[in-house]
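> Could you send the Cation transporter prediction when you get a chance?

Sure thing. Input:
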Amino acid sequence: MNSEKKRLIIWSVAISLLLLAVKFYSFYITRSNAILTDAMESIVNVVASCFALYSIYLSALPKDSNHPYGHGKIEFFSAGIEGTLIIIAGIFIIYQAILGFIFPQELTDLPMGMALVGFSGLVNGFLGYLLQKKGKLLNSITLEADGRHLSTDAISSFVLIAGIGIIYFSGWIFLDNIISMAFAIYIIYNGYFLVRRSVAGLMDESNPEAINQTVEILNRNRKSNWIDIHNMRVQQYGGDSHIDLHLTLPYYFDLIQVHDEVHEVEEVLEQGLPGYVEVFVHADPCLPDSCCHYCQVKDCHVRKYPRSKKVKWTAYNMSKNQKHYHELSQFFADKP
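Output:
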């Protein structure tokens, strides 16, 4: 898996370097600030891809005494660096556009510039789509971030061609700086969301997508002996996941039975979720006075009360640090 990540990022670096040269040559022959916008973003592509390559190498290192959860969070840091570079590039482009308004320059050889930008857009579009697809498949935020950036670059390149075409046929040179400022705002907007996602990952902010996926897997494989799951936490370390949860089991189970049920929960999550998954399960005994109302165990010889409801496991109630009998208490309190 990690070798495929490295291979994809190496291709990204190589192609980004080639397109960087193409775009700056396009700017050189046209003197267009709008094309400079595209060229500046390519510098970000190269730097970000190089950092992404290093982060993938680092995230693949095994756990050690200083990093008991591995090195996967470097991928969040990589995405944050890429987002920050995009924002800086956008600010520089706005500065260049303002200078263009004050000191306008004549634009030359626009058709050739459009052709070069179009070629770059096609290549970036294909590479961006591939990286995003592989990033989701390999559960790599670094590949996804790099792919999203390249896809954004491709879209901006094609819109840029349309803008330059208008300038070429109308002769309205002032549009060059307006277009470059519009693109600068657009890439700053995209950079912000990359930084936002990076900070969320580094701060262990809850990821609704990861939690919902975990809940779905547990519901799909739910067993009657799993009376209750609560206090569940899902943390991501790059492409890896760490899950803590409390599992309520019948209190009369012996240690071997408890071990087998815990192991099955771990196995279900490890096989159902992408990447490396580490699961810590704390086993709780059931409380007959509280749990019988929603316990799904059939022919239970210690049952005190008949089963009255099946609690639906959701991301909301499974994350609470309490058994689901609180939910049942409210259910009975609401009944007339």
